[in-house]
Amino acid sequence: MPDDPLIHDPDAGIDRLLAIMRALRDPERGCPWDIEQDFASIAPYTIEEAHEVADAIQRQAWDELEGELGDLLLQAVYHAQMADEAGLFDFSAVVHNISDKMVARHPHVFGSESRDKSAEQQTRDWEAIKATERARAAQGGALDGVAISLPALLRAAKLQKRAARVGFDWPGTADVLDKIIEEAGELVQAQASEDPDHIEEEYGDLLFVMVNLGRHLNLDPESALRRANAKFSRRFGAVEARLAERGKTPAQSDLAEMDALWDAAKAEEKVRQ
């Protein structure tokens, strides 16, 4: 199998990648590490590669995106190869499944429905089709099918969106802001109790409502937090650079000095904007 001519054919496309994965998993001649893996051990790498794709897009690192997409594609091929070995399905079944799904969910492109509708209406239609698919799969609850392994912020947003679709939602942004104030007060009370489990619970409730505020503001919480992370990293890097000019590291400084340098970096950013 490692001698499969497809492996050395640069023009063989996806067939080459499938042949490479078969060779890596070959019980006798494959890679020992790859042979030992299973769905559970590979799943974290799949999530990591998806995040690296998102990171390249966020940074507009288009020269990196090609490689990151390849890494993510490899994950799909890896899982499909393991499924094939277990007699569950193969890569062609994966392709068949997603192709059928895309055709079924786009009747305005591949069927007789009119394309003359807004993106918002198309989104509602998409969700209606997905609801029908869930019903056929015996997923009767509004929240059924929201993957537990999703990043917590993303899963919170999806859960709230599903609940809102059946009418369980605050009427407007002001109501969500009031709830944030309420949850913040409950977190303060929990701190006074000095019960770690209670504190974590109330902190989680506050985060959950903050996600809901993002939905009411038409903001993606994951994107907003990535942007905040990037801003913090950028400004703290500026603080470190200014301290280095003074012959210092953050550990040799104090909060007052670093806070002043932070404010200076923030002011410079605003001037550049």
From TrEMBL:
Enzyme class at the top of the EC tree: hydrolase
Q: What reactions does this protein catalyze?
A: ATP + H2O = AMP + diphosphate + H(+)
Q: Which residues form the NTP pyrophosphohydrolase MazG-like domain?
A: 37-110, 177-235
Query: Sorted alphabetically, which keywords does the UniProt record give?
Result: Hydrolase
Q: Name one GO biological process term.
A: TTP catabolic process
Q: Which EC numbers characterise this protein's activity in its record?
A: 3.6.1.8
NCBIfam families xref list? mazG, PRK09562.1
| UniProt-recorded name of the protein | Nucleoside triphosphate pyrophosphohydrolase
Q: Which organism is it from?
A: Pontibaca salina
Q: What is the lineage of its organism?
A: Bacteria, Pseudomonadati, Pseudomonadota, Alphaproteobacteria, Rhodobacterales
Gene giving rise to this polypeptide: mazG
